[in-house]
Amino acid sequence: MQEDRIRFPSGELEMDGLYCPNRSPRAVAVTHPHPLYGGDMFNPVVEAIVAAYQKHGFGTLRFNFRGTGKSTGTYDEGLGEQDDVVAAVDFLRDQGFDEIHLSGYSFGTWVNAMALQDRLSVRQLTMVSPPVAFMEFKSQIRLPALSAVVTGSEDEIAPPHLIQPMIDEWNRHARFTIIQGADHFFFGFLDDLAATLSESIQVAGNK
């Protein structure tokens, strides 16, 4: 589906994004992997997430965190990036969407989780490869909106055996899917990822 290049404010900064309204009452904001390791909104996994949500009629917004691509500002170790997530959700609400969801990949999942602790509320949250072996997900995090987590069996940054006990803390009702053979970058498994996410979105929507 066609995505329009847009800019939206995050405080005094301007975020660079790709937006598809999709004529829907539901929309999702999608966050990207770590910008210091080349992550941006054009990442193939981010594109697979967007495609999965668009398949279910969602409006979509993917965007570059501050200091990434054409977004202004500088990298802020995940702190200011939480403001960017809040700003993205505010943008979607300003567009008139009734139901806002949030999804992310790798570093983006950490930023989303932190933003949801005290400043943000969304209908549902999905995570692709939360980097639990690379970044600290503080203890006692609760994510009542979490509906699905996906990782690969060969993912050393988001290993299944470390994610499972964390899901029990975040939201034990969330669906956890392990894609056999996939590593953190899902090379050769992007179609499997999109299909898995699509199924999870459908299941969550039927609850």
TrEMBL record:
<dbReference type="GO" id="GO:0016787">
    <property type="term" value="F:hydrolase activity"/>
</dbReference>
<dbReference type="InterPro" id="IPR000073">
    <property type="entry name" value="AB_hydrolase_1"/>
</dbReference>
<feature type="domain" description="AB hydrolase-1">
    <location>
        <begin position="49"/>
        <end position="141"/>
    </location>
</feature>
<protein>
    <submittedName>
        <fullName>Alpha/beta hydrolase</fullName>
    </submittedName>
</protein>
<keyword id="KW-0378">Hydrolase</keyword>
<dbReference type="InterPro" id="IPR029058">
    <property type="entry name" value="AB_hydrolase_fold"/>
</dbReference>
<dbReference type="Pfam" id="PF00561">
    <property type="entry name" value="Abhydrolase_1"/>
</dbReference>
